[in-house]
Amino acid sequence: MIEGVDPQPKASHFIAGRYVEDTAGAAIPVIYPHTGATIATVYEATPAILEQAIASARAAQPAWAAMSGTERGRILRRAADMIRERNRELSILESCDTGKPLSETLYVDATSGADALEYFGGLAATVTGEHIPLGQDWVYTRREPLGLCVGIGAWNYPTQIACWKGAPALAMGNAMVFKPSETTPLCALKVAEILHEAGLPAGLYNVIQGTGTVGAPLVGDRRVDKVSLTGSVPTGRKVYAAAADGMKHVTMELGGKSPLLIFDDADLDNAVGGAILGNFYSSGQVCSNGTRVFVQKGIKEAFLNRLKERLDSAVIGDPLDEATTFGPMVSEAQMKIVLGYLEKGAAEGARLVTGGARMDRDGFYIAPTVFADVTDDMTIAREEIFGPVMAVLDFETEEEAIARANDTEFGLAAGVFTSDLARAHRVVDAFEAGTCYINTYNDAPVEAPFGGVKMSGVGRENSKEAIHHYSQVKSVYVRMGDVEAPF
Ligand code: NDP
Predict the structure, then answer these.
(1) Residue nearest to atom 48 of ligand 1 (CA)
(2) Which of 20, 277, 351, 415 is most buried (CB neighbours < 10 A)?
C-alpha cells in the first residue's frame, strides 16, 4: 500500500470486461522511480492472452457500432465522471507508475483523460454524413467505425494516452486493444476497469501487457484495422511499416526536438515560465518540449539569471508529497540515457549553467539542467533527450532564428515569446511544426488538435480532427431514374 493505494493490480490484463492473469508470460517488475523498489509485478501477454483480447474485441464491436452515438457517449461521459470522483487514487497510482509528482498528476493526468472521455462522449452523437445533390439523384456519406483499433502507449502519460486513444475510438463505435509501455503498466488497467464499471460492454476496451514483442504481433494481426502509437521515431518507423503491410490506418504521435524562440521584447518572467514548462515539467519527459531555447542576444543574460533563480526554487523529492514540484526520471534506463547526454553536452563545449548530474539520493533523480552557448551542431541540440535538459542557443535576427528552428527532422511543436503580435504570427506561419504556441508553452486541451509533421508523426489526436482518424467514409450513390447502359 502506498498512501492507501495498492499498486499491485488484481491481474496483469483486462480482457472481455474482467481482469485476467496468465503467469506463463515473462514477469515485468513495476519499479517506483522515487526509491527503485519493486511495487508490483505484471506478466507479459502470452499468445493465448493476445488471442483472447483480439477475439473478444472483434466479437463485441459490431453491437457497439450499432448503438446510437448518444448511447455510446453516455457511457463515456459516465466514465469521465467516475474518473474525476476517483482522481486522487488514480493520481497516486500515476505517480507510483511514473514518478511524476502529485502536484502534476492531481491536475493533469486522470483529469485530462476524463476531459477526453467527456469531449468525445459529447461528440459521439454529433457525427453525421453529407448529402451531395446530383440533379435528381444524390450521394450521401456515412461515417463508419474502422473496427478494431490497437493503441500502444509511451511511459510518460500512461492514463492520458490510454484515454486519448480510447475515447475517440470508442466514441466512433470501434473496439480497442491497448498495450501500455512495459515501464508503466498500471494506469491503463484502471481506465479499462472504470470504463466497464460505467457500462461499457465487455470486450470493447482490453488492456494487455508486454514489450515491443507483444506490440509487434498486435500490429501485424490481420484482424486489426488501425494502429495508434505514442512513442519514439525509431519505433514509429517500425510500426508504420508493419501497419502499411496490412494497409492499416495509423496515428503516429512521435518524438520531437522542438524550438522555443524568445525575442528581446518578450516579457521576461513569462518567457522563463514558458521555458520551464517546456523543459522541466514531468522531469522533461514530454514529447512536445521546447528543448532548443533560442534566446535573442539582448535578453540572454537576464533570461539565464532569472531561469537559474527560478530553478533553484524547485522542490525536488518525494512525488507523493504535494509540495514537491520536480520528481525522478521514470526508470534507471532513461536516467542513464539522459546522463549520457549530459556528458556529451559538456564534452562538446556547452556551458553548464546549472545541474548537470545525477542527484545524491535514492531513486532516479537528475538535477534540472541548463546548458548555454549551445550550437546547432551539438548532439544535445539535435537529438531528443527526454529528460530535464535545456539547451540555450543565441540568435540575432528573426530570419536566422526561423531557419535554425526548422533545421531538424522533427516537427512536433514550436513556440515563440514576443510582445510584437505581428511578428508572433509571422513566426508561427514559418514554423514547420504541428502544434505551435504564442506566449505560452505545452498546453494540450482536448478541444485542440495535437500532433506533429515531418518525422514527428502523422494524424492528430484530440479535437474534431481525431474523429477522422478513428472512422472512415462510405459514399452511397442513389439514382431515382432508370440506369442507362451502353449495351
Ligand atoms: P518507445 O518508442 O520506446 O515505445 C513506445 C511503445 O511502443 C511502447 O509501448 C513500446 O513497448 C512499444 N513498442 C516498441 N517496439 C515496438 C514494435 N516493434 N511494435 C509495436 N510496439 C512496439 O517510446 P518510449 O516508451 O520510450 O516513449 C518515449 C518516446 O515517446 C519519446 O520519443 C517521446 O517523444 C514519444 N512521445 C510522443 C508523444 C506524442 O504525442 N507525440 C507523447 C509522449 C511521448 P515497450 O517500451 O514496453 O517495449
Answers:
(1) 211
(2) 415
